């Protein structure tokens, strides 16, 4: 079984319509380059574009949804080989983060993980509070303001609402129900250092050491990123996570290529990612 996690503001249809996964699978299986697979493409979206496949008291227990509800349903209703050795997870962008988050927090769930152009591995560059979009996200003061922001289709301010409710939820902090680790003082971001440190602890670059034993148990862990990715934090975060993995002596693969955030997803799925993942999955043979 392979689980595919989509990115923010997408749904499962992106794998079918934009990335052409059914056609890719047919070609690879017919050519005997991968075994026959059950491929599961769940939805991970919400009103802010996505729940980041992590548990939150505000935006929902998305990690539990994948790990318990979804996999349990598939194992009960389809002819699977139950157990981690026959399970892999691949994610793109927000889904790439989700794949890493599940590897960090759910030992024994998947044996093989590939994270494609993963967002949100570290709070740097355009994900950091130097991005003025955070000011707009933090300025909402009523449910009507929230809806107005959503209706604006302004990418970063809306995505940041999804990020902060997933990474720093606070059910008492209306109307966003999140603990922003900064204040806006005379139009400038002023960090609340203790709260900011707690917020940073939610990012994977700070979680590798604690999870190193479970990560070492994986049959395969891989990251890839295009150097021309439009989201500047993605190359920086991917390289930073790889460095952390290396420092903890966690075997992994890092592919860095010339490309942007989405352009080469289909090609890489067919020529690199799925064959590599397929080699590592247990089969009936």
Structure characterization notes:
There is one protein chain. The protein is α/β, with parallel strands linked by helices and 285 residues long. The protein folds into two domains: 2-122 and 203-280, 3-Layer(aba) Sandwich (Rossmann fold), CATH 3.40.50.1820; 126-200, no CATH class. Helix content is 41%, strand content 14%. The protein has eleven helices and ten strands. The chain has helices at 13-18, 21-30, 62-77, 94-105, 133-138, 143-152, 155-167, 193-200, 212-216, 233-247, 265-280, and strands spanning 2-5, 39-40, 55-56, 60-61, 88-92, 112-116, 182-185, 188-191, 220-226, 253-257. Strands 2-1-5-6-9-10 form a six-stranded parallel sheet, with helices on both faces. Strands 3-4 form a two-stranded antiparallel sheet. Strand 9 (220-226), helix 10 and strand 10 (253-257) form a beta-alpha-beta unit. The radius of gyration is 19 Å and the shape is globular. The two termini are 15 Å apart. The mean pLDDT is 95.
